[in-house]
Each structure stands twice: as structure tokens, then as C-alpha cells.
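Page 47, continued from p. 46.
Same chain as before, 266 aa.
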Amino acid sequence: MAEPSPEERKKAPTEAGPALPGDSALQQPKSIIQLMENYSKIERAQMGIPGMDDLVAGGLPRGSLVLLSGACGTGKTTFAMQFLYQGAQMGEPGVFISLEEQPETIMRNASLFGLDFYDLIRKKMFAIRYFELYDFDKLKNNLDEIIDEMKARRVVIASSSILGLFFEDKYKFRKALLELGKAFRQRNITSLLISEVPEGSETLSTFGVEEFAADGVITLHYAKVGNVFMRSLSIRKMRDTIHSMKIHPLQITAHGIYVYPTEEIF
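Result:
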């Protein structure tokens, strides 16, 4: 049987199924171009981590709350500290909120990669606070005070694994994170929320709700390839921007994290 002509296809009833490929070929590129133009208008916060901004069209959409997830040894804290350090170099004050590890330990480890946070503290471009609180409202009030004092543009909270213990109900935790993300967006603050996951787990967060409250999810992997372990990174979601859908190699070098945007892990 001969294939219908383009004129006959146009006259076909709708119940025959979707239009054949090519019928809307003149419209589709226009919509894609418009989408790209819309994304190009989004204000972005460059992460400054080599190779990382290439994966998200130039940087995180400003005001986003991004979940940074991974097992132990994947480089979560190093990634977050680089994000704050590079932000300070671009004139954006940052705040690190630790609910577990002592500030001195965090800054000492960062100094091994040449990240001098002591100097940033003297210049009032960085603040780090340790809170041993189990009351979300008190934590939020303290965070607001520090943000106001620093005029912060970037915030890191470590970690959701401890933060979630403030709540008996994980759905209340999800609601609290949504409120936190809304408050950051209103102040145009770009933030990372660190989340720990078990080794080999397919989950994206500690409590299974953080990824739904966040605007984006960056996952750090640590997998055995042959007889060596290899670090890599993927972006599960990122609102308001296009992003890479591939798994990219990642190395922790003498100068911190380096992402290889043109290479892939198969």
C-alpha cells in the first residue's frame, strides 16, 4: 500500500494517532530557540569549580536551593567550600552553617587545597558557624541574623542528615525546607544543602524528601571501576536551566575539585 501524501496526512482524522514526524518540523525549532532564549535571561551564580558551570549553561540559577548529595568520600564538603570561596572571589559573601563538624576542622581541611578562609573572614567575605540546636525555628533565626550581618549571597548548610532530626515527621521536614528555599529565593541567595546517603544507595537524600523540596540536585558518586575507585558527578534536576544529563568524571586535585565536562562515565 502506498504511503499517503503530505496533503492526505493533513486531512486525516485526529483519532488516527499523533502527527507523523516532520509534520511540525517548522514549529519545533522555533519553540526550542525560544526556550533557549528564555534560559539565557536567567541570572546565574557561577560556581567557579573548574568544569562545573559548563554543565549548567554557565552557572546555577541565582536564588536556587540545590541539594548536594553523596556517600562518604565523594567530596561534598570540598565542593561546597569551593563554591563559597570562588563566590567570595567574585564579590559574593558566603556563610557556612555546620550542624556536625567543627569550623576549625572544616577550614583546616579547605586550606590543604589552597583555600584561605581565614583571610576571607578578616575581609568579612565569609562566616562559618556551628550550631548544636534541635529547633528549626531557632536555627532559622540565627541564620537570618548571620545573613543580614554578612549581606550573604551564598549559603551552605551541612547537613540535611542532621537537620532532618529536628523533625518527628519527614513531611514537616519537607515543608520546612520549602519555606527555607522560598526565603532564600526572596533574598536572591544561592544555597547548597549537603545530604549524606549510604554507600551504594540509589537514594538521593537521607530522608527521601529533600530532593523534592530543592530546586536542583547534584549527586557525587564514588564507584569501583576495575581495581580502582572513581569519582564522578551527575545533575539529577535543575530548575530554570538546561543541564547535562550525563555522568562526568571528577577529580579531587591539589587545588580542589575539577569536573571534566566533555568526558563521560559509561
